[in-house]
């Protein structure tokens, strides 16, 4: 997204690193800063860090603003920020505030520390060896964080516990490296106590029945819970230690059996279980139980039930599965969050007197509520095979029931044996015997398919591996293999009846040196393969299907090639089916959903699960979103027996360092469309989940195979489950601009919401305030691009945005004023031709008035310049075609040829191309400028001092310069900074000499290029972690460029000073 404002306001750059410069030296002058070549100082020592990232891993519920409605408080450890989502009628008002706290934080405690009746926020700052306290001032304001040192370094998991009975509560922290816990009394270090190996979680309660608060510490490295007994005066002593499962990462207290005594439960991550320690009310262990869970349980939450006892919720990190566990009756409901969750919390969010469950997703930057008793489905293991390399469903005898073909896994698989051949095992439901099929002479097998390939009775079995296949026929109750057939580059086999004669053929997916190829072959009488047709494609081949569109001749083929839908209808070239805003397609399923005689499709795409009516029309129908979440596989079946097709969408999810298969079932609705059920999740498999029918009952089953594990068949049944319901997202794109006309840059975040933080003129920012987009732009779901300026010259900036409609696929050009909500009936400025239209703001026609450039990518690339009138108005657009290749192309306005007119620099698959500006808002046909593909823009300047503008780019080899030559041509890249992953080239101090900026994640390097082409860099070590971006802007309004260093947490600004 470009969204350039005033041309001198800001430029975005990427990350940098230093490795191969000619010279890397340190600069000890300038008071821990960097002396620029023009004499000014870049004040690195006085740099100001502001953190607003939202990646929550801790969550609590409380009413912080005193309005009677609970709020959600989230801590983002790596971002070093606290976010409060203020409560509202729908569990969240869509309004949130984020405070910058420290470089890293851990955990949350909500407690009134000063007795003013308002709840304060506490988190640990382990890198500062302190706890951070944000005092509640009321009116939705928290004071700046205050750091209070702990007695032991590296505090984590703060908890407020009244240990002395006189209030306010003490703060208890854990210290993993020191194997201890610490206590702060009146925010001063009071006591520390060694408790054992790996203290990671803490619970409190009266465990011995003496009326005094005690502590329970989960020891992750000791597989135990250590009780710490309180004396009621603040003193602590070690109590009993109780063994639990391996690696307990969470502990909670509650009355789980209804006997009135406090019990404990732990999430034992490496044991895949929950341990329950039943207390007797006197500090002794009455009983211990263990409940199996999904892999890697990490979070627990306790919710009161109607009997006065407690129900336990368990979150397993690998699958993001939640289990509601009533320890008197067992697991009664299960469900999975569609975004991987990292934390659970409970509280009365809607004021009905009952606690609800909420979750936090770090990877999706999302908070949501858990809905119990939601319509859903469950998966129960039915049976399993022996250890299997792979497993495939095959209806070999054409009886409508699937057999499971298993490639057996054995110890000898690890031994290379050139004489070995492959084999299969056939497993049938409710049959104890396993049939073996010898696949000799095939040495190994990647997959098998079945079809009727010849005129003889019975079916044929096709087994293949890379570059080879064998076809087996059933003869006298035995499978007989034909000759081994070499098919160079073979990657997949599909069975089709393309000519409709009842005899099936094969489609062979191949990868050759010349590219991808799809061969249509049939089985000849001598057992060889006879080629019927062959088609070359660009990009890797995905799913393929034969399509009967009612015409004469062979059926067409719908192919995914290079993540694009391609239709082979027998013409000279396959036709690309381009869909507006759909950049990549991974899977499809076809059906005439609206019964109009034309095929429709549901698609797994890069922008979610979509439905497209009349897919083969010219043009196809406009996409409609079924689900914002993406998918990797689709199955269309009538799962619930109502004679309507349902959708089972599977998503292979590897976020957060764990892998799973997420299953979401959409049931066909009587009025059309689909209704989503609660999702379920399974541990990731090397293969895929397949729908199978094993018997004559009314339900379909699921086959799941994992590499070298038994293939498992799961029964599907319908009932109630735990569903997820997102209530807040902090996933925004940020930029800097002067929103209030004070000359200081402010922070503006746009996406599914709007966030604003005002600059303070010293390099810092106020807390970030976020509002729901629907409150400001009714009917809008998301902002994709924006141009920001004070268009009406009233002193406050406005944004012209590309806003996607909430009730459709299209986007509109709309005016967004951060301080004003648009009326619901306010018409858009312009209906746009593409959902992903992008904007850029600059003077494109040379009249010194800002114009608005709008451009779109595939399937219909075009652009228009909306000429500005200098009073906030723009002329109507006149759209013209432009040669752009992707759905969301990268285009940069820049005067690269030095003629005073803005050009457009575009990145394409064949390199960088230049659309030269004609000076009247039009652009010439593209001309090749450089064959460089990929990489990121890092600046445009006369790097080699020859009077022509050059480009600085970030490529895999580092920061390079593309040096301009007469006529606009560029020569081979010149390396400025080897191995840099990002950087910037800019004249920071206006002395006419360029500074070269690069970073290595923990250091900044500032350099210059000498007249002879040599480069010299000065290294500055940084305190921030994970430097991921460098850019320049005048943040403080003093007319001098400052340096912005981006990390995952936020921004650190180093200002220039004399």
Automatic annotation (TrEMBL):
This is Repeat domain-containing protein. Keywords: Signal. Residues 1-23 form the signal peptide. It comes from Nannocystis exedens. Gene3D superfamilies: Integrin alpha, N-terminal. InterPro entries: FG-GAP, Integrin_alpha_N. It comes from the Bacteria.
């Amino acid at each position: 997204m470009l969204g350039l404002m005033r041309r001198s306001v800001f430029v975005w750059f990427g990350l940098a690193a230093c490795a191969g410069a000619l010279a890397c030296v340190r600069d000890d002058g300038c008071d821990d800063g960097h002396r620029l070549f023009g004499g000014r100082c870049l004040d690195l020592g006085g740099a100001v860090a502001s953190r607003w990232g939202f990646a929550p891993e801790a969550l609590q519920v409380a009413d912080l603003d005193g309005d009677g409605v609970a709020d959600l408080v989230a801590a983002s450890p790596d971002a070093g920020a606290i976010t409060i989502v203020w409560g509202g009628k729908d569990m969240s008002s869509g309004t949130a505030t984020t405070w910058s706290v420290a470089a890293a934080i851990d955990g949350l405690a909500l407690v009134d520390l000063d007795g003013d009746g308002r709840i304060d926020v506490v988190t640990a700052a382990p890198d500062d060896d302190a706890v951070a306290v944000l005092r509640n001032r009321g009116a939705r304001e928290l004071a700046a964080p205050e750091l209070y040192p702990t007695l032991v370094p590296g505090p984590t998991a703060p908890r407020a516990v009244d240990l002395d009975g006189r209030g306010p509560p003490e703060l208890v922290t854990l210290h993993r490296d020191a194997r201890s816990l610490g206590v702060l009394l009146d925010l001063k270090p009071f006591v520390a106590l060694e408790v054992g190996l790996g203290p990671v979680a803490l619970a409190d309660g009266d465990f011995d029945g003496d009326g005094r608060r005690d502590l329970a510490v989960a020891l992750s490295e000791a597989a135990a819970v250590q009780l710490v007994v309180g004396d009621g005066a603040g003193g602590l002593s070690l109590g009993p230690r109780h063994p639990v499962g391996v690696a307990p990462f969470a502990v909670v207290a509650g009355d789980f059996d209804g006997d009135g005594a406090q019990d404990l439960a732990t999430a034992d991550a490496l044991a895949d279980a929950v341990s329950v320690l039943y207390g007797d009310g006197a500090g002794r262990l009455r009983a211990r139980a263990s409940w199996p869970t999904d892999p890697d349980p990490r979070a627990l939450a306790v919710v009161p039930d109607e009997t006065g006892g407690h129900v336990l919720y368990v979150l397993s990190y690998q699958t993001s599965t939640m289990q509601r566990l009533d320890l008197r009756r067992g697991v009664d409901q299960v469900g999975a969050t569609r975004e991987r969750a990292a934390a659970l919390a409970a509280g009365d969010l809607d004021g009905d007197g009952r606690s609800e469950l909420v979750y936090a997703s770090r990877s999706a930057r999302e908070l949501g509520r858990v809905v119990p008793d939601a319509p859903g489905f469950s998966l129960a293991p039915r049976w399993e095979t022996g250890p299997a390399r792979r497993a495939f469903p095959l209806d070999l005898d054409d009886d409508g029931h699937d057999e499971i073909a298993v490639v057996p896994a054995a110890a000898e698989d690890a031994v290379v044996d050139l004489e070995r051949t492959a084999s299969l095992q056939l497993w049938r439901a409710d049959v104890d015997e396993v049939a073996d099929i010898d696949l000799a002479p095939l040495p190994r097998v990647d997959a098998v398919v079945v079809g009727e390939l010849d005129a003889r009775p019975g079916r044929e079995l096709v087994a293949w591996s890379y570059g080879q296949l064998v076809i087996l026929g059933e003869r006298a109750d035995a499978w007989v293999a034909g000759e081994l057939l070499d098919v160079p580059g073979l990657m997949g086999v599909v069975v089709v009846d393309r000519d409709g004669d009842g005899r099936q053929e094969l489609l062979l997916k191949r990868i050759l040196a010349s590219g991808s190829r799809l061969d249509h072959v049939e089985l000849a009488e001598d057992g060889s393969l006879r080629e019927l047709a062959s088609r070359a494609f660009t990009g890797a081949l995905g799913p393929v299907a034969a399509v009967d569109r009612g015409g004469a001749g062979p059926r067409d083929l719908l192919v995914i090639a290079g993540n694009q839908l391609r239709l082979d209808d027998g013409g000279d070239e396959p036709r690309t089916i381009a869909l507006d805003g759909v950049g990549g397609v991974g899977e499809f399923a076809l059906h005439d959903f609206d019964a109009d005689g034309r095929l429709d499709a549901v698609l797994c795409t890069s922008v979610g699960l979509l439905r497209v009516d009349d897919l083969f029309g010219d043009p196809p129908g406009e996409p409609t979103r079924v689900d914002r979440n993406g998918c990797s596989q689709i199955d269309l079946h009538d799962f619930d027996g109502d004679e309507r097709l349902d959708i089972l969408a599977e998503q292979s999810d590897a976020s957060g360092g764990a892998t799973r298969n997420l299953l979401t079932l959409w049931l066909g609705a009587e009025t059309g469309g689909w209704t989503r059920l609660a999702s379920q999740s399974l541990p990731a498999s090397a293969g895929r989940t397949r729908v199978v029918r094993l018997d004559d009952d009314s339900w379909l089953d699921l086959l799941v195979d994992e590499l070298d594990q038994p293939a498992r068949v799961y029964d599907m049944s319908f009932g109630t489950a735990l569903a997820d319901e997102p209530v807040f997202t902090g996933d925004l794109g940020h930029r800097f601009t002067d929103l209030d006309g004070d000359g200081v840059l402010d922070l503006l975040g746009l996406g599914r919401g709007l966030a604003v933080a005002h600059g303070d003129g010293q390099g810092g920012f106020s807390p970030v305030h976020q509002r729901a987009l629907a409150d400001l732009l009714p009917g809008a779901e998301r902002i994709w691009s924006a141009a920001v300026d004070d268009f009406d010259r009233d002193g406050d900036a406005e944004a012209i945005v590309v806003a996607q409609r909430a009730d459709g696929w299209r986007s509109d050009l709309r005016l967004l004023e951060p301080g004003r909500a648009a009326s619901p009936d306010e018409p858009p400025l312009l209906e746009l031709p593409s959902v992903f239209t992008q904007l850029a703001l600059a003077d494109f026609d040379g009249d010194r008035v800002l114009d608005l450039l709008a451009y779109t990518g595939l399937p219909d690339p075009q652009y228009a310049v909306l000429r500005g009138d200098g009073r906030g108005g723009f002329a109507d657009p006149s759209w013209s075609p432009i040669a752009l290749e992707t759905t969301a192309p990268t285009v940069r306005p820049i005067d690269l040829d030095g003629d005073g007119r803005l050009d457009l620099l575009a990145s394409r698959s064949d390199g960088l191309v230049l659309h030269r500006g004609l000076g009247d808002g039009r652009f010439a046909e593209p001309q090749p400028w450089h064959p460089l593909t990929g990489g990121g823009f890092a600046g445009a300047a006369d790097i080699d001092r020859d009077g022509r503008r050059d480009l600085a780019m970030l490529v895999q080899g580092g920061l390079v310069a593309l040096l301009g030559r007469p006529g606009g041509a560029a020569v081979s890249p010149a390396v400025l900074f080897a191995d840099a992953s990002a950087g910037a080239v800019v004249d920071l101090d206006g002395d006419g000499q360029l500074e070269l900026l690069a970073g290595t994640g923990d250091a900044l390097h500032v350099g210059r290029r000498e007249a002879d082409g040599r480069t010299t860099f000065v290294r500055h070590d940084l305190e921030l972690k994970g430097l991921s971006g460098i850019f320049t802007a005048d943040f403080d309004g003093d007319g001098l460029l400052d340096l912005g260093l981006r990390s995952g947490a936020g921004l650190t600004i180093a200002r220039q000073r004399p």
